[in-house]
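# step 3/5: fold
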Amino acid sequence: MIPPTSIDGTDISGATIDGTDVQEITVDGDVVFSVSAPKIYHFGGEAASEIDDIYEYDPATDSIATMSATLPKNIRNATAAAVDGKIYHLGGNTGSVIDDIYEYDPDTDSISTMSATLPQAIERANAVAVDGKIYHLGGNTGSAIDDIYEYDPDTDSISTMSATLPQSIQRATAAAVDGKIYHFGGLAGSAIDDIYEYDPATDSISTMSATLPQDIQLADAAAVDGKIYHFGGFAGSAIDDIYEYDPATDSITTMSATLPQPVLAAEAAAVDGKIYYLGGDDSNFDNIDDIFEYDPATDSIATMSATLPQDITSQTVAVVG
């Protein structure tokens, strides 16, 4: 039976009963509605060296599991985004930079190498999903680049967009709000504070008036309720700052909460209104295994009991569920 998303025309995909999220509805023993709780999938990275592990972090239970599937290679400095319940892992470094695209299916815990590849071998880029397609921005091919690529999972095809970043950038971060992608900071010869808005619908890019409060690379960001939260990074040294960017007003605010320690080269993912920040390097450039939870509603941060199975930096993550 295919689970419906409505009953008598009423949307039940976000249904609650007495404030509790509905995960499954059964009628006479048959499942008529089911939804998986969102989980964060963590790919590769660098421990003592590049690794191929895939981990599943469940924020609802604060638990982490090592999946049976692994990446086809040991990879760091890749990027990933989710479309229709599957995760697409793009590029990275295996000791040399690669152009591979992999598809990971959490339902079957299986991974496939796609026929399409990036137009060149790229690491330290950003991938963001908008309207069923993945946009891959900038990165490093031996030097920073300004290219924007569009990957279509439905056709397993990749296109080079006409728009480019205003300069060649690697080690930046990006997140989407209302169908537009916001690209923050990065390394363009030196670290920068610029914020760019890329609109896939018009294939156009704009430089925003707001800037990061300092020049930052190796940070990460995630969006909640129409705002983007930017965490940590490197600004001459590792930093612990959290910034809130509001695309509606093109304004940036330094939050009162900070990360429990300065962290760079970690990964952020939003689940159910909270943001989880995983792994990275501390101020001594030592890999860490910590998972932090940031709640924008209360501007508060907590260290989770679960940790990554090993100290990892330069990984990538995506959310499914």
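# step 4/5: annotate
Confidence is low (pLDDT under 50) at residues 1-7, 16-22.
# step 5/5: archive (pending)
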